[in-house]
Write a structure and sequence with these properties.
The chain is mainly α. The protein contains five helices and no strands. Helix 1 runs parallel beside helix 3. The N and C termini lie close together (10 Å). The mean pLDDT is 92.
Length: 90
């Protein structure tokens, strides 16, 4: 109602967000944020990770420029990452 941007005061981390999400939710989010096709190696590799490893990978996707570089994050993908917050916050 006041047009506040939640990401100005909150950023998802492994502790405050990703550990609370189910593995399939993380798979879907990873796929959507990085614009991955269902059959890409990057998505398959992420889906094979254990839940704790997925939490860490998601944290790194949001907070590590080295990880973003390794994942070849484009400017459009970075913009999506920087704007994302859980739908329940909306």
């Amino acid at each position: 109602d006041v047009d506040a941007n939640i990401r100005n005061v909150w950023t998802p981390t492994d502790v405050n967000c990703f550990k609370r999400m189910k593995g399939q939710q993380l798979d879907d989010l990873y796929k959507d944020l990085l614009d991955l096709d269902t059959y890409t190696d990057d998505l398959r590799n992420f889906e094979k990770l254990k839940k704790g490893e997925k939490n860490t990978a998601m944290h790194n996707l949001f907070h590590s420029s080295d990880y973003q570089k390794a994942m070849r994050v484009t400017p459009d993908q970075k913009q999506r990452i920087d704007a994302w917050f859980p739908p329940c916050f909306g």
